[in-house]
Design goal:
It is built from no helices and 17 strands. The chain has 198 residues and is mainly beta. The chain has a ten-stranded mixed beta sheet, with no helix packed on it. Strands 13-14-15-16-17 form a five-stranded antiparallel beta sheet, with no helix packed on it. A hairpin with a 5-residue loop joins β10 and β11 (107-109).
Length: 198
């Protein structure tokens, strides 16, 4: 264990050159992991980092490889990522926030500015799924439930696994009723679950 003259600690390693200006203090474990927080001034920032430190002028890599950070930031909780570094220790680090839990409880995935309780966005022109809910249990169904204020105003979208169909339910007075089904050949059924038209 080493404690530097500026108050930083290293367990199994001499800690990286964290800021000595009083803005942050770091506890580094091994060559990559660290726990950090502000040493003075605002007390509402700190977090956990891997291959990350701040020298007072900017974010830096401890060494080569990817970097990541969970940052408690003015009440927000940010999940940040830094691309692979091959320039060695102390290279400048640019972090991107891929998820945020905001102070009001809203959650952003793929960005850091939620405009709804759950705000999921794909990368621009990324060609990826915006939202994917997956159930790998072949004996069960994947289900997305949307409740509108009360449980008796529930709308459910249920996707079949082996039979390849999608159903739409409404719920009233505690009883769910299937109202529409899209079957594997594209037919749409209203208030029925089987069909005879190919």
């Amino acid at each position: 264990l080493r404690i530097t003259s500026t108050g930083h600690m290293g367990l199994g390693v001499t800690p990286s050159a964290w800021s000595s200006t009083g803005d942050s203090r770091g506890f580094q474990v091994g060559t990559g992991a660290c726990l950090f927080g502000r040493g003075s001034g605002d007390e509402d920032r700190g977090g956990i980092g891997v291959n990350y430190y701040n020298d007072g002028s900017g974010n830096k890599y401890i060494g080569n490889g990817n970097a990541s950070r969970i940052y408690m930031n003015d009440g927000n909780i940010d999940f940040d990522y830094g691309a692979t570094n091959s320039s060695g220790a102390d290279a400048a680090l640019s972090l991107t926030t891929y998820m945020r839990i905001a102070t009001d409880g809203d959650v952003a995935i793929g960005h850091y500015s939620p405009s709804a309780r759950l705000d999921v966005r794909a990368a621009v022109n990324g060609g990826t799924n915006l939202l994917m809910l997956q159930n790998d249990d072949a004996s069960n169904y994947g289900q997305l439930t949307i409740e509108c204020g009360k449980i008796d105003r529930e709308v459910r979208f249920v996707g079949g696994y082996s039979n390849c169909f999608m159903t739409f339910y409404t719920q009233s007075s505690g009883s769910s009723t299937e109202r529409m089904r899209i079957v594997d050949n594209g037919n749409i059924l209203f208030n029925k679950t089987t069909h005879s038209i190919n």
